[in-house]
Design brief:
Elements lengths: L2 E4 L4 H6 L5 E10 L2 H12 L12 E3 L27 H6 L4 E4 L5 H10 L2 E4 L5 H5 L2 E8 L8 E15 L6 H13 L1
Parallel strand pairs: 1-2, 2-3, 3-4, 4-5
Antiparallel strand pairs: 2-7, 5-7, 6-7
């Protein structure tokens, strides 16, 4: 049974999650991809505030398609998280506790997750229309010139995700294949 998680993602809630947990996430998430992350990290290096409060925030690595008439948002499937690996440790240092995307993360990102008690949620690639249906509100908040990569605030309800890497560094991308091979023996 999936765990229902209400955002913001507090340290206590993050610490309670284990790799492999299925969750239904509800609350505010922020969208950004590599160009937005680059700008945010440059702002942090200059001592500037981010366009949102990063404390216990969750960032969804997505560049949503434009909304058609009558829609809140277009297709909103995850992008490859590795493109944000250069920026993720700095974002966690600023307070970000949750990340949503697809694909493996570098060891230095996993180490930062352990240090900052952060969680990496996996979203199913190719399910952008399903995930867009979880979005109840969408608001552009910064970097409009980046188009799909602009920073947005989304209110989501029951977004289906899996904890891929937990705060202890347990990594489903590593543990899953091991378990599979052990069962085949």
């Amino acid at each position: 049974m999936a765990k229902r998680i209400s955002l913001p993602l507090t340290e206590d809630v993050a610490m309670s999650l284990k790799a492999g947990d299925e969750v239904l996430l509800s609350g505010v998430v922020y969208t950004s991809r590599d160009a937005g992350h680059k700008r945010m990290c440059e702002a942090l290096e200059r001592g500037e505030a981010l366009p949102f409060d990063p404390q216990d925030a969750t960032i969804y690595y997505v560049g949503p398609a434009p909304a058609r008439p009558g829609q809140i948002i277009g297709s909103a499937g995850p992008t490859t998280s590795g493109r944000m690996d250069a920026y993720a440790p700095r974002m966690m240092e600023a307070g970000v506790r949750g990340m949503i995307g697809k694909g493996a993360r570098l060891p230095e990102v996993v180490e930062a997750m352990k240090r900052h008690h952060a969680v990496y949620f996996g979203a199913v690639g190719g399910a952008g229309a399903l995930l867009a249906g979880c979005v109840k509100e969408a608001e552009l908040i910064a970097y409009e010139d980046l188009g799909a990569e602009a920073l947005r605030r989304l209110t989501v309800e029951d977004m289906p995700l899996t904890v891929v890497i937990d705060c202890q560094g347990t990594n489903l991308y590593e543990e899953g294949p091991k378990r599979y091979l052990e069962k085949r023996k």
